[in-house]
């Protein structure tokens, strides 16, 4: 299972964090706007401000998903 980690959120306002969390999990601007009770243009503005502040999205991929299970540990180094 792929997980994401968001870094640098401490630089964002509360509302920017909300928008980023929803946007990075695949929510549309329309759904975010409805959920937060704001306009879609506000969603876009908040998301752009957050991107300019430089948060990072880090993908965490388990070793098993990469074919790097325990059986690979027995292999000799090159």
Structural write-up:
With 78 residues, this protein is of the alpha+beta class. It has a single domain, classed as Arc Repressor Mutant, subunit A. The chain contains 3 helices and 2 strands, in the order βαααβ. The chain has a two-stranded antiparallel sheet with strand order 1-2. Helix 1 packs across helix 3 and helix 2 packs across helix 3. The model has no long low-confidence stretch (mean pLDDT 86).
Brief rundown of the structure:
This protein has helices at 14-24, 29-36, 40-53, and strands spanning 3-7, 56-60. It is α+β, with helices and mostly antiparallel strands and 78 residues long. Helix 1 packs across helix 3 and helix 2 crosses helix 3.
Write the layout of secondary structure elements.
Blueprint: E1 3-7, H1 14-24, H2 29-36, H3 40-53, E2 56-60
Antiparallel strand pairs: 1-2
Helix pairs in contact: 1-3, 2-3
Q: Quick one: how many beta strands?
A: 2
Give the end-to-end Cα distance, rounded to a whole number of Å. 29 Å
- Whole-number tally of structural domains: 1
Give the class-level CATH name: Mainly Alpha
Looking at the structure, what is the overall shape?
elongated
* Tally of individual helices: 3
How much helicity do the residues have? 40-55%
| Portion in strands | 5-15%
Chain-averaged pLDDT: 86
In the CATH scheme, what's the topology name?
Arc Repressor Mutant, subunit A
Model regions low in confidence, pLDDT < 50 over at least 5 residues: none
- Describe the biggest sheet? 2 strands, antiparallel
Gyration radius, rounded = 18 Å
Order of helices and strands: EHHHE
Structural class: alpha+beta
Order of the strands making up the biggest sheet: 1-2
